[in-house]
Design a protein that fits this description.
Shape: elongated
Radius of gyration: 31 Å
Number of domains: 2
Low-confidence stretches: 10-30, 36-47
CATH topology of the largest domain: Beta-lactamase
CATH superfamily of the largest domain: DD-peptidase/beta-lactamase superfamily
Helix content: 25-40%
Largest sheet: 7 strands, mixed
Number of strands: 18
Structural class: alpha+beta
Number of helices: 10
Strand order of the largest sheet: 1-15-17-18-13-12-16
CATH architecture of the largest domain: 3-Layer(aba) Sandwich
Oligomer: single chain
């Protein structure tokens, strides 16, 4: 409803239009930040002494990619045969299951652990992927790399390109098998990012969860059986991967994956002891997984759609307009003591004209004080700018019954 003061403004605008007296106006918008919701416990950062053997370790929520626990997780370290996670992914994406791989002299001379392939033997690529992932054969990794990349160096370029594509900035691959080499490094957190990508591939998971696989050369003169050496598969309910590793520089390493209920967790341990402590990697992995299962549950961050309050419109044919945001339902694994704050960033007032579904602000979700995600806020409806016909109409409505 238009008040007397509002009507006077409308008439004034009408006279301005009539006299063609156009005066530029600079509208300065002020940000209104509303803290709508805060879920908090202790103000102190939650620290739990897991007493891990590993020099570097990480636990990740596979759904969101958020790191739930980190021990020197951003320190570059040798990764041993966990390298073969990337080798397998590149082979799956750039090769074909029925590709024929011919073994080179270089591949046949790789150090153990190995399949002991002979030079010029031929195998199907799909069979070799079981050799690669179940028993971690170094000659197999080299044969695959030379087949896909043309050379070990060419394949390393493919690996590094993929790593950068996944957002890894501290990872550098030199070999396809993870044997110690200068500059062959990653971090626990970035290795978790690679594993997260890998376990989204059903074929990859099918390989890493196979108990054993038997295959032959194409000539049929030699037959091999490879057996899965991943003890974690039998250690915890829901375990489904991923890869062991050991070198003199890297120590014992392991990347694990576990699904229980609606939670999928990825763990990484690097430098988890040296001989004779080969079981420490399993102990560390179970500690990380149990920490995740015991301390993290899903909380809803955003409902699918929400209507917000209206916002005032200056010089508009309507005085206000409805606003809303829309997003897929968002949930996040959180500890009870973690803080979630929802902020609405909006201008003080909108200047007409306003279009339908005009983006005018944003909703920011902050987890522990850091931006986790942003969602745009839109107008619902349009508001035309006050013009001469509108002014005349209001004058008539006011003074002529």
């Amino acid at each position: 409803m238009y008040t007397y003061g509002k009507l006077r403004k409308v008439i004034g605008i009408g006279l301005t239009i009539i006299l063609i007296m156009i005066v530029p106006v600079n509208i300065v918008y002020g940000n209104i930040i509303q803290e709508e919701e805060q879920q908090a416990g202790d103000e102190q950062t939650h620290q739990l002494a897991l007493n891990l053997h590993a020099r570097s370790a990480m636990l990740m929520d596979a759904d969101s990619g958020r790191v739930l626990y980190s021990k020197d997780g951003n320190v570059p370290m040798a990764m041993a045969s966990t390298t073969k996670i990337m080798t397998c992914i590149i082979a799956l994406e750039q090769g074909k299951w029925e590709d024929i791989v011919t073994v080179s002299a270089n591949a046949s001379m790789q150090p153990k652990v190995k399949l002991y392939m002979a030079e010029n033997e031929r195998y199907y690529l799909g069979d070799l992927l079981y050799s690669l992932m179940l028993e971690s054969h170094n000659d197999t990794a080299t044969a695959i790399a030379e087949h896909i990349g043309g050379s070990v160096e060419g394949f390393a370029e493919l690996m590094n390109y993929k790593a950068k594509e996944l957002g890894c900035t501290q990872t550098n691959f030199v070999t396809p098998n993870g044997l110690d080499a200068p500059e062959h490094k990653t971090t626990a957190e970035e290795l978790g990012m690679i594993a997260r990508y890998a376990i989204a591939n059903d074929t990859f998971n099918g390989i890493t969860n196979t108990p054993s696989h038997t295959f032959s050369t194409l000539a049929g003169d030699r037959t091999h059986t490879v057996t899965n050496l991943d003890q974690f598969l039998y250690q915890m309910d829901g375990a489904f991967g991923v890869k062991t590793g050991f070198t003199g520089e890297a120590g014992y390493c392991f990347v694990g994956a576990l699904k229980q209920g609606d939670r999928i967790l990825i763990s990484v341990v690097l430098g988890s002891g040296w001989p004779p402590d080969r079981t420490w990697k399993w102990e560390d992995t179970e500690k990380l997984m149990r920490y995740g299962l015991d301390n993290f549950t899903y909380r809803e961050l955003f409902t699918q759609m929400r209507e917000l309050d209206t916002i005032r419109v200056e010089d508009g044919q309507l005085e206000q307009v409805a606003i809303f945001y829309e997003t897929p339902s968002q949930q996040l694994l959180l500890r009870n003591d973690e803080t979630v704050v929802i902020e609405y960033v909006l201008p003080d007032i909108l200047q007409a004209p306003v279009s339908e579904q005009q983006e005018i602000g944003k909703v920011i979700c902050k987890v522990n004080g850091e931006n986790y995600m942003e969602v745009p806020i839109y107008t619902r409806g349009r508001v035309a700018k006050i013009d001469l016909p509108f002014c005349f109409q209001k004058v008539v409505e006011k003074f002529l019954p």
